[in-house]
From TrEMBL:
It is found in: Cell membrane. One of its GO terms (cellular component) is plasma membrane. Keywords: ATP-binding, Cell membrane, Kinase, Membrane, Nucleotide-binding, Serine/threonine-protein kinase, Transferase. Residues 25-37 have a biased composition (Low complexity). This is non-specific serine/threonine protein kinase. ATP binds at residue 135. It holds the Pfam family PK_Tyr_Ser-Thr. One of its GO terms (molecular function) is ATP binding. The lineage of its organism: Eukaryota, Viridiplantae, Streptophyta, Embryophyta, Tracheophyta.
């Protein structure tokens, strides 16, 4: 959820505030699911007796059956979540021991814990599952709405590039969420925290992370009832053991416009440096406002620099303002690419990526590509890279064979010692 230290909240100059997903979700559904917590509070209430089973997002009557979206994503009819007791989560984290903290955002601290795995096979009972437990900080400006938003969205959306929410706890005013544990942590840590034990993320990994989260966003945007993520940033992208990327933190997620509207008007929330200019200026949130945030993260990965950094010289503190002009020239692009990536990419591919980044960052949300197009471009870039690798391997093979005969050496396609091959 928006990091409050760098997060902004404020009212838009419009009066139409739809930033109340939970109410929309629970009151408008044809038949909500019901559930109570151990503290007796009603979380999900029956809202109608229309006889339609299933609970829905917003005013969409009901998805009814489980909706499948593409081969890998689906919207579950109802959240399939476990209710945890506070005692269970205390014991999982050794009473929220500081040593178990994995990270912290605007909602509160996230702890690593171990819970009993509920398995079907009795002989396997007793095995423990690593989880991440997010606990509301009592001083946070966030609270029940953000918590409920995560339960509603993440509890029902299932996709390989979205983090899995396993359950929740609401007890004694404590709000907690329990997720699958992602061992490689956040993209933010990998890109910006100079930890000696951490290898810098390779070009290949950055590309696969970009494609992964692009697919996650495309899934949200292309669902029957569009979902706007609203807080796309490196800290909200988590990596599993294979560095596969997953979007986490649905605290600020919102349903997209309905009834032919192009945008929703809402309280302005998010994170400076990533939020789209039209949203910050007017409170008008478009599905494509997420595309802007995606462009900022692409730029961060390309440059290896944070979207905002007050420690940089003036004129360079805002990455987009500073680096955008460099994206349109192949020659100038080299100056802003993360030096840790030297030798790992071809300028041709980097330029393709720069052009995509530039398109995502245009001021007019309607002129930005949709996430499905972004996925296509990234897949095309992946294909170019695969071909280049293949060519390099083939040329190396033939070079070693030919060089013995003729001494011919094919030009290496990647830049060496910071000097880029013109052929790329
Ligand atoms: N499932 C998880 N596995 C590992 N680390 C996590 C997990 N969830 C969160 N974290 C860590 O905690 C940080 C804050 O989590 P986030 O969900 O963004 O919280 P907030 O809603 O407070 O912003 C992340 O940037 C990451 O470092
Ligand atoms: Mg967060």
């Amino acid at each position: 959820m928006g990091n409050l230290s760098s997060c902004f909240t404020g009212s838009s100059n419009t009066t139409h505030d739809e930033d109340v997903l939970p109410d929309e979700t629970f009151t408008a559904s044809s038949s909500g699911i019901s559930g109570t917590t151990t503290s007796g509070k009603v979380l999900f209430s029956e809202t109608s007796s229309s006889g339609n089973s299933g609970y829905s997002f917003g005013d969409n009557p009901s998805f009814g059956e489980t909706i499948k979206l593409g081969p890998s994503g689906e919207i579950l009819e109802r959240p399939n979540l476990r209710v945890f007791s506070l005692a269970e989560l205390k014991s999982a984290t050794r009473n929220f021991k500081p040593e178990t903290v994995l990270g912290e955002g605007g909602f509160g601290k996230v702890y690593k814990g171990w819970i009993d795995e509920k398995v079907a096979v009795p002989s396997k009972s007793g095995s423990k599952l690593a989880v991440a437990i997010k606990k509301l900080n009592s001083e946070s400006m966030q609270g029940f709405e953000e918590w409920q938003s995560e339960v509603n969205f993440l509890g029902r959306l299932s996709h390989p590039n979205l983090v899995k929410l396993l359950g929740y706890c609401l007890e004694d005013k404590e709000l907690l969420l329990v997720y699958e544990y992602l061992p490689k942590g956040s993209l933010e840590n990998h890109l910006f925290k100079r930890i000696s034990s951490m290898e810098p993320l390779s070009w290949e990994r950055r590309m696969s992370i970009a494609l992964g989260v692009a697919k996650g966003l495309a899934f949200l945007h292309c669902s029957e009832r569009q979902v706007i993520y609203r807080d796309f940033k490196a800290a909200n992208i988590l990596l599993d053991a294979n560095y596969d990327a997953k979007l986490s933190d649905f605290g600020l997620a919102k349903l997209g416009p309905s009834g032919g509207n192009s945008h929703v008007t809402t309280r302005i929330m998010g994170t400076y440096g990533y939020a789209a200019p039209e949203y910050v200026a007017t409170g008008h949130l478009y599905v494509n406002s997420d595309v802007y945030g995606f462009g900022v993260v692409l730029l961060e990965m390309l440059a290896g620099l944070r979207a905002l950094d007050m420690n940089r010289p003036s004129g360079q503190q805002n990455l987009v303002d500073w680096a955008k002009p460099y994206l349109s020239s192949k020659r100038r692009l080299r100056t802003i690419i993360d030096p840790r990536l030297e030798g790992q990419y071809s300028l041709k591919v980097a330029f393709e990526l720069a052009q995509l980044t530039e398109k995502c960052l245009v001021s007019n949300p309607k002129a930005r590509p949709c996430m499905r197009e972004v996925v296509e471009v990234l897949q095309k870039i992946e294909t170019i890279e695969d071909k280049q690798k293949e060519n390099t391997t083939n040329s190396k093979r033939s070079t070693s064979a030919n060089s013995e005969r003729s001494g011919y050496h094919r030009r290496f396609p990647y830049h060496r010692n910071g000097i880029l091959s013109q052929s790329q």
